[in-house]
Amino acid sequence: MDIIKVVICDDHVIFRKGLGTILNEINEVKVIGEASNGQELLTLMKKQDVDVVLMDIRMPVMDGIETTLKIKERQYDTKIIALTMHEEIGYFNQMIEAGAHGYLLKKTTRDELEAALKQVIKGEYYFAAEFLAHAEKHFRKKAQESPVVLTDREKEVLELICKGYSNPEIAKKLFLSERTIDGHRANLLEKTGAKNAPHLVMYAIKYGLVKM
Prior knowledge:
The chain is α/β, with parallel strands linked by helices. The protein has two domains: 4-137, Rossmann fold, CATH 3.40.50.2300; 143-206, Arc Repressor Mutant, subunit A. 51% of the residues lie in helices and 14% in strands. It starts with a strand and ends in a 6-residue tail after the last helix.
């Protein structure tokens, strides 16, 4: 794997420095810059290619949601991972809608950071297990029955999607062809009305179809 070039965008300088030290200890990861807000980040990105941005959400001048939207509008191939203290589902939804590929909490670990970076660089999504567990707890209080009926195989595929597995990985795990898994994923999207994997994950948690 090539070196993953990372930029940290957060308005707390001590947090940026500490996180940078941890990231630079990970094989195949190199922090190439820092920004204290979205405006600084966009200026930096005009000068150099960035593979992944670890993006705080609440920042002065330009927050993480607006910045993520602008990065996608400018068609940068950069992947965005929200790195935040906010566990609210509303923030998650806004960041994913804006174009983020990942959602981590600031109490994350080095191992989870590494896993997230290596997952999103492949074009997959990564969500903190702790955040998903929080979301599950939130929805459990107002449990609802799924308005659509899924087959046992679809539920199996959905659970693996929620755990962050890619289609090739799911195919290997279930001893099925990738084409079959593609079909199951397409059926899940159509049945649930979800637009993408993050929406599927939230749907599954909302209706208690998986246990995180």
